[in-house]
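Archive entry: two folds, one per protein. Generate the first.
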Amino acid sequence: MNAPHQPPYQGVPHTGQPYPAQPYPAPVPPKKSRLGLVLGIVAVVLVLCAGGGIALLLSVDTSDDTPTAAGTSAAATAKAQGGGYRQPSDPCSLADLKVLGPRVGAGKGEATEEKTRFTLTGCEYFLAAADGAQEVKAFANVDGDTAARYKESADVYPKITGFSQDKVTGCGAQGFFTKRLSSGDQRLEAILVCTDQNLYVEVRFNAGGKEAWDAAAMRANMVKLVNGMIANVPKA
């Protein structure tokens, strides 16, 4: 019996080209004093998920990071921040997208930043593949908020409607993978988060296609990608 006809994957416009919808950044943890805001966000998420879309909900930076005093060495700063890494100067030099497999397309990366409670800095790739547009976001942050970033992501991402979570070993000191398949498994949204000392790494893969995606294979490939990124982050 033939599977029901699925409409072609439609992405979010970017500089005149169609691209997949963007995954959520890690949102601000709920607080009692912001109950109304949290309920409003939940309502928006439910509406968007019902339509199969993902949107960027938060854009206000509420972090209270204090700039490092002038003259402090990079090594001393990294040590004070609780680990052995330094923030990479070029976030687009870290990831080798070829390890994601032959079905993943090619494209040039652009530096990107997302601001919620914690600022995420990384590289965004819009890829042209044989069976549709794809998007990859690869973030790497070195600071004193690694544990808090990880906890926030682990508390939020797997709870988005349709996502499932698996713990990951062999990816830094700790990690988790979460995914959502839709449109007869022809659309895949996957997120891998790993940490090592004071380094937080998050990679998102978002793509449609004409064939079903192998989520297990993509998970293994994303682990390879993140381990390669960790190896490329400069040490303190």
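Generate the second and append.
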Amino acid sequence: MELLFWLAGFGVMIACATVFLVVRARRARRLPGDHDASIPGERSHSEATAAAHTAGAARRAF
């Protein structure tokens, strides 16, 4: 009987951890700056990334 209580307690801990991680992931997905929340067709982020990559590549070449 004691084993049943241990297993139930372990199951409750796993369920709580799963719920915590799912809720945290859903909240994090709604934060500003997330790719899911980007404006469709906006290219400013990709252009800034490309410019930074080009600048870094030019600096490494010398």
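Annotation attached to the second fold: The first helix runs from residue 2 to 29. Helices lie at 2-29, 44-61.
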